[in-house]
Amino acid sequence: MSAEKRKALGKGLSALLNDSVEVNQNKRSTPVSEPSETAGLGSISEIKINQVEVNPFQPRTEFDDQALAELSDSIKKQGLIQPITVRKAGANKYQLISGERRLRASKLAGLTDIPAYIRTANDQQMLEMALIENIQRENLNAIEVALSFQRMIDECNLKQEELGERVSKNRSTVTNYLRLLKLPPAIQASLRDGQITMGHAKALISVDDPAQQLFFHQYIIQHDLSVRKTEEMVRDMQRNPVKKEGKQPEPLSYHIQKIQDELATKFSTQVKLKVNGQGKGSIEIPFLSEDDLGRILEMLDW
Questions:
Q1: What angle separates helix 123-135 from helix 142-155, to the nearest 10 degrees?
Q2: Residue 81 lies inside a defined structural domain of this protein
Q3: Which residues does the annotation mark as catalytic?
Q4: DSSP 285
Q5: SS3 call for 45
Q6: Residue range of the domain that includes 103
Q7: Residues 39, 41, 43, CA angle at the centre, nearest 5°?
Q8: What is the mean pLDDT of the chain?
Q9: Count: domains in the chain
Q10: Are the C-beta atoms of 104 and 63 separated by less than 8 Å?
Q11: Which one has a higher pLDDT value, 64 or 234?
């Protein structure tokens, strides 16, 4: 991530922290002092590491063990360069606002004290700060960004324009991320795991039928389609929709439709349920190739 982009992303967090002190990455310009009851904005204090509680609003749940070990080794040699940020939570007690990765690595390094900015923040500010810091991570995938955006809207009562200002992104970018959460879980998981890109996902969003989305999603993976080929495939489908002839079946009940959608998500293909008035019917599970058939049979423990 470029320095300019990182600076732009930091605007929302800096505004929330009301931080007027810039920290030199190689040398602290502000003297370290013991915290006092009036320790305030702009000061760095050494606090006991065992007095710091994790942020209950932390949206990040997974931390790379190898990356933590590498940071821990660096802290052992160089010390912790960038302080964590906390708020007072009682006598000799602090609650983490941002910097959980640094806190974990410092504990691994065996530190008993840790440099910290001490801030005042209510619960909503705590959540907003944690979410913004999370969004600023370089290795965040599109689904993680989308989920953080949605949490900021739901739990911080922000509109999309306000959210865009917080994270220095325009409204259309915010909207594109949020739309990813409307995709079936199987497609979201593929995007999260890097099997498809956000470009693939955006093309699939334009398909209205979730079952068709899942069918195309599996086809993309099976044939390693590029984003451009995916867009062409979706456009061709929209220009030449399959014409349904003859008498159309009765629409599925909500219960049966829900089961069909869940099966389609489970098998990552366009599952169809047919049910007659007596409750009898069939399940159709299409496959794209012999390998795809093998995948489905394996899921069925065949």
A1: 160
A2: yes
A3: 100
A4: -
A5: strand
A6: 17-121
A7: 65
A8: 77
A9: 2
A10: yes
A11: 234
